[in-house]
Amino acid sequence: MRNQRGVSIGEVLLVILLLSILAIVMMPRFLNVSREAKWEACRTNVANINALVQLYYIKEGTWPVNDLSDIGVNQNYFPEGALPSCPVTSAAQYEIVTTGHRVTGHARGQATHP
Fold this sequence. Notes:
Blueprint: H1 9-60, H2 69-72, E1 95-97, E2 102-104
Antiparallel strand pairs: 1-2
């Protein structure tokens, strides 16, 4: 029995401790990547909706209503039948600002994000 080698409980605890420290250090980085991806998805949604608003104006000769309800249900612009929702703030709605006819990421009065 004395010539047999094995893993002691101390070595196992040391490995668990090191893995725990690595997990604690890496977890915030993974959470930050997820948040950045959501923000980028929102910015992409705004850019795509802006392009569709411009196309709507070219085809129809008028701007869509400010809450985008007329363009949102139009199958030619959104085949899914609805505007995309903001991945950062699910309650936020995309809308058009009347000056400049550009889409914002959130309705007025709601918190914004970068």
